[in-house]
């Protein structure tokens, strides 16, 4: 063996040994080789290819998710068999997707999309804009979901750290409460408002059953009746200065239902609220449908769920309404204390005058918001609700 050959093999074996040391020390051997073999001889190229083939990091789930998201941002190739539409209902057969000419396709989900699930329980929901490959005259395979402008979510009943999507691409949510049976809870209204804003949806408050003011119902005690009337007067006094749309309606008399229907035109809406507040009855009158209305339980004055499958209902004159089961709690997800201020925009002009920059508007001296509430410039009930939400500790993911 010549001296030159001996030097080459000695260098090569030293390099292989160094590669093992580098791998154990988590130093990238490819970078090391590029520095050592500046001219990239044949053996170096072969070792580099082997190292690249043995590198499994490119198959990590995080990288796959990133590639899928990059594919979503890329424009779809023009294909006569690729169509787009909106999911109008979920059934046992699959996702029903309606395209621009009102044709409905039953679609399934492409297998590769299931890897993108992440923290959400369901990948496709009512209201989603999807792209699908046409397989037959009435069947397709969903290959892509458009980026959502808003999401209505709630915690999953079984996996509390997993969010369950209820609907997507919603413009406004009608937060439905009743004057009595169940009783009116102002603090609960603000929690719904906060959840809607956090989800990118406009909140609209609907107070139903105002006809109960005329005569006390038999299921309401005298004390509760006076308390409910007082809460109504507080909300009614806020009507002109309330930062969100507020409607007082009655399914029995039809009061203000025309205004409510006009607000729904050209928008995608959903109704949310406690059981028994009359959501299904309102939908029947507003949509001229015959949806099932649940019976009210005498003890709790709460209703039972009457809707089993979510569906997107077209409105006369434009717009849609999503009829979905059981939206009685939603949306308080990864919430910070700074987010609470989103539900109280009327505080903003006064908070700039607070003595402390990080004022909680509660116990601090020199708080301009607290002073405004005491002087009547801000509704006292709104300030109390703000403090209540800030101090609440039993909400999941509350920070």
From TrEMBL:
GO molecular function list: GTP binding; GTPase activity; metal ion binding; rRNA binding
Cofactor(s) this protein cannot do without: Zn(2+)
A Pfam family recorded for this sequence: RsgA_GTPase
EC number(s) per entry: 3.6.1.-
Assembly and interaction partners: Monomer. Associates with 30S ribosomal subunit, binds 16S rRNA.
Family membership: Belongs to the TRAFAC class YlqF/YawG GTPase family. RsgA subfamily.
Task performed by this protein: One of several proteins that assist in the late maturation steps of the functional core of the 30S ribosomal subunit. Helps release RbfA from mature subunits. May play a role in the assembly of ribosomal proteins into the subunit. Circularly permuted GTPase that catalyzes slow GTP hydrolysis, GTPase activity is stimulated by the 30S ribosomal subunit.
The name this protein goes by in its record: Small ribosomal subunit biogenesis GTPase RsgA
Native species: Aerophobetes bacterium
């Amino acid at each position: 063996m010549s001296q030159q050959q001996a030097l080459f093999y000695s260098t090569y074996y030293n390099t292989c040994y160094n590669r093992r040391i580098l791998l154990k020390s988590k130093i990238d051997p490819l970078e090391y080789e590029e520095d050592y073999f500046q001219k990239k001889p044949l053996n170096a190229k072969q070792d580099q290819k082997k190292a690249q083939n043995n590198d499994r990091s490119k198959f990590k789930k995080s990288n796959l998710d990133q590639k899928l998201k990059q594919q979503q941002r890329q424009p779809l190739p023009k294909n006569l068999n690729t169509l787009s539409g909106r999911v109008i209902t979920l059934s046992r057969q699959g996702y029903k997707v309606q395209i621009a000419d009102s044709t409905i396709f039953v679609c399934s989900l492409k297998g590769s999309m299931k890897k993108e699930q992440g923290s959400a329980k369901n990948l496709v929901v009512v209201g989603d804009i999807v792209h699908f490959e046409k397989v037959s005259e009435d069947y397709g395979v969903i290959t892509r979901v458009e980026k959502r402008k808003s999401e209505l979510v709630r915690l999953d009943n079984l996996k509390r750290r997993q969010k369950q999507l209820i609907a997507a691409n919603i413009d406004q949510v009608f937060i439905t409460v009743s004057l009595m049976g169940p009783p009116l809870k102002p603090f609960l209204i603000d929690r719904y408002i906060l959840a809607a804003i956090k989800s990118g949806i406009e909140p609209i408050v609907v107070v139903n059953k105002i006809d109960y003011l005329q005569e006390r119902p038999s299921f309401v005690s005298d004390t509760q009746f006076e308390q409910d009337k007082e809460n109504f007067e507080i909300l009614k006094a806020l009507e002109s200065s309330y930062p969100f749309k507020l409607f007082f309606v009655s399914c029995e008399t039809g009061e203000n239902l025309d205004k409510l229907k006009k607000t729904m035109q050209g928008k995608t809406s959903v109704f949310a609220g406690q059981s028994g507040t009359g959501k299904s009855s309102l939908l029947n009158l507003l949509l001229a449908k015959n949806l099932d209305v649940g019976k009210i339980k005498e003890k709790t004055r709460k209703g039972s769920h009457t809707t089993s499958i979510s569906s997107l209902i077209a409105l006369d004159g434009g717009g849609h309404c999503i009829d979905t089961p059981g939206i009685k709690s939603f949306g308080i997800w990864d919430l910070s204390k700074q987010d609470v201020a989103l539900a109280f925009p009327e505080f903003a002009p006064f908070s700039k005058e607070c003595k402390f920059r990080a004022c909680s508007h509660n116990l601090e001296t020199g708080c301009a918001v607290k002073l405004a509430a005491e002087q009547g410039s801000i509704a006292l009930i709104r300030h109390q609700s703000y403090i209540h939400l800030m101090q609440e500790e039993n909400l999941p993911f509350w920070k």
